[in-house]
Q: What sequence folds into this?
């Protein structure tokens, strides 16, 4: 009985220590799924950049809104600094990723097919970096493995 | 029988050494391989864009935009590495705590069974 109590105290202590010392967020299935969805939609939208910007305004607004929703979701996850910064870079119109591509499309009305074909893999890689980090985060079942094993 | 704390401590030292070399070395190799792949990919892209610029398929503005996008990707890569190092650190911390508690629980539960 005495040992059981000691063990219980230790398990509670360890659980508290783990939660206090965690510096990175836990893998989030919803975030992963929504980021893949945003990636597919963003790349499909970029294909339309050979057409007039104003003629695609509805599709542009829809994709921009979708990405803003994912970013907002990421902002509200704890210990998620790097993913948030990556989304900010991806969407920033002053930088040269998705936000910058949209700004250029708007200012020039249409973009050449060669340029679009070269810019698309860059945006794809940016999304893949975000997804790659998410995929390497500790899965909830791994985070709970100590409690399950003891 | 009282648990032998010197024995526990020796076991912990051995476990901690194994844990740090497996977790941290694995991360170092992974980060280096990742950066190497990125640089090799950057070189291929820059070569292709230079040829497209020379042939007139890309404008100077297109070319500059693409080169700048590669720099932004490098920043993303650095952010990802920073995030990954935090993940590995968490895994190391969790592993260390599990090691300490697992070793102690193992030792103190033995006398009760005997």
A:
């Amino acid at each position: 009985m005495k040992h059981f109590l000691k063990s219980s105290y230790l398990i509670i202590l360890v659980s508290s220590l783990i939660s206090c010392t965690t510096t990175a967020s836990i893998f989030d299935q919803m975030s992963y799924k929504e980021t893949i969805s945003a990636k597919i939609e963003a790349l499909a939208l970029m294909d339309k950049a050979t057409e007039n910007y104003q003629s695609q305004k509805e599709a542009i607004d829809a994709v921009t809104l979708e990405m803003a929703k994912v970013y907002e979701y990421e902002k509200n996850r704890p210990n998620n600094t790097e993913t948030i910064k990556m989304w900010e870079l991806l969407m920033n119109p002053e930088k040269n990723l998705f936000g910058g591509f949209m700004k250029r499309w708007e200012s020039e009305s249409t973009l050449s097919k060669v340029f679009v074909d070269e810019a698309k893999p860059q945006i794809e890689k940016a999304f893949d970096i975000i997804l790659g980090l998410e995929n390497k985060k500790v899965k909830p079942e791994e985070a709970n493995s100590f409690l399950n094993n003891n | 029988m009282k648990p032998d704390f010197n024995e526990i401590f020796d076991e912990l030292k051995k476990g901690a050494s194994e844990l740090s070399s497996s977790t941290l070395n694995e991360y170092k190799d992974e980060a280096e391989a990742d950066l190497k792949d990125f640089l090799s990919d950057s070189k291929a892209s820059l070569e292709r864009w230079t040829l497209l610029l020379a042939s007139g398929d890309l404008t100077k503005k297109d070319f500059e935009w693409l080169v700048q996008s590669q720099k932004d990707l490098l920043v993303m890569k650095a952010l990802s590495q920073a995030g990954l190092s935090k993940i590995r650190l968490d895994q190391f911390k969790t592993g260390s705590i599990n090691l300490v508690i697992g070793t102690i629980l193992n030792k103190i539960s033995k006398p009760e069974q005997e």
User: Anything to note?
Assistant: The CA atoms of residues 57 and 101 of chain A lie 14 Å apart.
